[in-house]
């Protein structure tokens, strides 16, 4: 509708913005943000000459918790900071060397601005504050002497803007420690395991000065846990077992390394793990140096307990009309995620609830108990895209189960049957908000490429598609037919490092076979710009003698600003320190920072006229017809 008057009111009932819808029914309203208490948007009122409606923000926010919309958020200063040091563990009496990189919202250097670095003690009290301005490269360097009598524990370095907005923080430890003296490597002789397989875990321990760590005691703990099976191209499918077993088995092996610092640990996967889905075996190995200090390493391996994994496609719909054919896509995949062919036992279950009178102590009470009613059971040959059909006859809660032959665990898909010969009576609570499944043709994109998005919806209708970050970049309407739609979008620098495709589908009023009124979908798009990433490499000799000089060559783009640190490998291994990566930090996934509101889930279901049971001849003539028309309206 065009020409609708839109007014925005704050939570303290003050008018803070007005506008009017265009030919697409959209209105763009800007308002001056005030820091006074209560001047926050709280309600929208839409008016025409003969009608009005309102949308309160207090209880109409779209629930996005079921979608992947999390990530780094913007701060009030418009700046972003990355802070790092040469390591993250120090002794009392040592010096911390740190560096800070500052960029604005577009990842440009903000110019000569002052920053404040605040060091906090483990008890939260301020230890020292350093003030310094950034250089023309948008960075600064500093150092801090740790007193020899400093308390040990976890310290915090916080970076603030000049107006005391916290930009970032990092933690480091001050401890009395000894660097690791040995390096431990572990390797399994098989790429994966199966139920009943035997494998050998090889261990090698070397002293950091080059000799073998011989005659060192070691321990290896082996644990098995569940792992979710997934495959490329089957992102919208469910392969998880509903009643998968929980394992608490642990095996401990002990021994001593030989003269070359090697050892072998044998392990056999129990055969009773068969038909338990995908599992993961974790090998935690600890080697003790000559002083008894431990050095630990971990290794994980997949355990395939079955040759074929069955899956059920989730099309985003949970409600189906009665007495109509319902189709479910089934798939069988091997361990590599490739299509296979196998026979499965398929059951259709209906969950019914019976109210019974039970005794609790000295009094009685009514209690609802679930009963599973078997509606059908059959053996089905499943391939890459087998379709299983069923026809629900009565309203209720249904479940489709797919079993491995002879297994007790199964893959499940629950759904509801809704409506009965034109009536909307149900015996269960329904959710009026559906999901839109959005699939992309690639995992990530570079600027200038086109994104092909496929929308799978629970019903047909008019769908609003927007591209958003911390603001709306673009929008358009898409007509959904056959419960699907396709859209091509071109990404540019505004979409770096990621943007979100959001879809809102409104159900036509005349469609009443399902209780849904609206459906939502959110999909993250990762976007890179190749020119933003700088390749850095270090060229040095593989080994040198102690107390000698060596030449280090750093290769990067001309004019690059480089920080170089030399740290004992044994110290880095204590906390498993990773090389700081400013690119990964600044271009990490950002959260969706646009809020969505709608009132469609609050709407009442459509009413339909239906004949009620009456005595005698019932009603006749024009009076009855008028009454029915009035009720239908």
Give an overview of the whole structure.
- This protein has 633 residues and is mainly beta.
- The strands form 10 sheets. Strands 30, 32, 34, 35, 37 and 38 form a 6-stranded mixed sheet that branches. A 5-stranded mixed sheet has the order 6-12-11-8-9. The chain has a 5-stranded mixed sheet with strand order 14-21-20-16-18, with no helix packed on it.
- Strand 25 and strand 26 form a beta hairpin.
Keywords, separated by commas or semicolons:
about 625 residues; mainly beta; 5-stranded mixed β-sheet; disordered C terminus
Per-chain topology:
Elements: E1 5-10, E2 15-20, E3 41-47, E4 52-56, E5 79-85, E6 89-90, E7 95-104, E8 114-120, E9 126-133, E10 139-145, E11 153-160, E12 166-174, E13 182-188, E14 193-194, E15 198-207, E16 217-226, E17 237-238, E18 250-256, E19 262-268, E20 278-288, E21 294-304, E22 309-313, E23 319-321, E24 326-333, E25 342-360, E26 363-382, E27 386-390, E28 396-403, E29 410-418, E30 433-435, E31 437-440, E32 444-446, E33 450-456, E34 461-468, E35 472-480, E36 484-490, E37 498-506, E38 518-528, E39 537-539, E40 553-555, H1 569-574, H2 582-586, H3 621-632
């Amino acid at each position: 509708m065009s020409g609708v008057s839109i007014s925005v009111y704050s939570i303290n009932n003050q008018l803070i913005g007005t506008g009017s819808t265009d030919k697409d029914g959209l209105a763009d309203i800007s308002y001056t943000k005030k820091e006074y208490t209560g001047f926050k948007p709280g309600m929208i009122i839409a008016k025409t000459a003969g009608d009005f409606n309102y949308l309160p923000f207090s209880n109409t926010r779209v629930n996005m918790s079921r979608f992947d919309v999390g990530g780094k958020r913007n701060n009030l200063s418009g700046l972003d900071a990355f802070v790092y040091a040469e390591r993250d563990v120090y002794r009392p009496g040592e010096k911390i060397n740190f560096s800070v990189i500052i960029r604005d919202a577009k990842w440009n250097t903000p110019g000569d601005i002052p920053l404040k670095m605040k060091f906090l003690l483990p008890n939260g009290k301020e230890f020292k504050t350093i003030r310094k301005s950034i250089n023309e490269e948008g960075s600064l360097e500093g150092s801090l002497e740790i007193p020899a009598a400093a308390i040990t524990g976890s310290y915090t370095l916080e970076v603030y803007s000049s107006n005391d907005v916290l930009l970032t923080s990092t933690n480091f430890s001050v401890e009395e420690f000894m660097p690791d003296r040995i390096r431990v490597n572990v390797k399994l002789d098989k790429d994966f395991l199966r139920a009943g397989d035997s494998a050998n875990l090889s261990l090698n321990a070397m002293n950091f000065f080059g000799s073998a760590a011989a005659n060192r005691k070691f321990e290896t703990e082996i644990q098995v846990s569940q792992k979710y099976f997934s495959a490329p191209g089957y992102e919208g499918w469910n392969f998880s077992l509903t009643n998968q077993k929980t394992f608490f088995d642990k095996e401990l092996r002990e021994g001593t390394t030989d003269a070359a610092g090697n050892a072998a640990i044998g392990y056999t996967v129990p055969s009773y793990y068969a038909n338990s889905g995908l599992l993961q075996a974790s090998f935690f190995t600890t080697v003790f140096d000559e002083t008894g200090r431990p050095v630990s390493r971990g290794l994980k391996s997949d355990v395939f307990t079955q040759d074929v994994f069955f899956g059920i496609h989730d099309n985003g719909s949970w409600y189906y009309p009665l007495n109509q054919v319902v189709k479910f896509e089934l798939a069988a995949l091997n361990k590599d995620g490739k299509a296979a062919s196998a026979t499965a036992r398929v059951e259709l279950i209906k969950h019914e609830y019976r109210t019974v009178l039970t005794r609790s102590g000295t009094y009685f009470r009514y209690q609802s108990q679930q009963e599973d009613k078997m509606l059908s059971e059959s053996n089905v040959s499943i391939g890459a895209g087998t379709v299983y059909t069923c026809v629900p006859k009565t309203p209720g809660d249904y479940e489709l189960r797919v079993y491995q032959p002879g297994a007790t665990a199964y893959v499940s898909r629950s759904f509801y049957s809704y409506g009965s010969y034109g009536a909307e009576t149900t015996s269960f609570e329904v959710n009026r908000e559906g999901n839109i499944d959005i699939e992309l043709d690639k995992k990530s994109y570079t600027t200038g490429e086109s994104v092909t998005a496929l929308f799978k919806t629970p019903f047909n209708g008019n769908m609003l598609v927007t591209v958003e970050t911390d603001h709306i970049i673009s929008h358009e309407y898409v007509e959904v037919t056959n419960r699907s739609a396709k859209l091509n979008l071109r990404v540019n620098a505004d979409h770096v490092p990621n943007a979100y495709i959001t879809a809102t589908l409104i159900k036509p009023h005349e469609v009443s076979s399902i209780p849904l009124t609206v459906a939502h979908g959110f999909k993250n798009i990762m976007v890179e710009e190749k020119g933003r990433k700088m390749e850095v490499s270090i060229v040095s000799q593989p080994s040198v003698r102690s107390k000698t000089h060596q030449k280090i060559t750093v290769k990067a783009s001309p004019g690059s600003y480089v920080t170089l640190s030399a740290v004992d490998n044994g110290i880095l291994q204590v906390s498993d320190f990773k090389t700081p990566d400013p690119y990964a930090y600044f271009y990490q996934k950002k959260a969706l920072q646009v809020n969505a509101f709608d009132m469609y889930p609050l709407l009442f279901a459509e009413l339909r006229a239906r004949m009620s049971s009456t005595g005698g001849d019932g009603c006749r003539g024009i009076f009855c017809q008028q009454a029915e028309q009035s009720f239908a309206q």
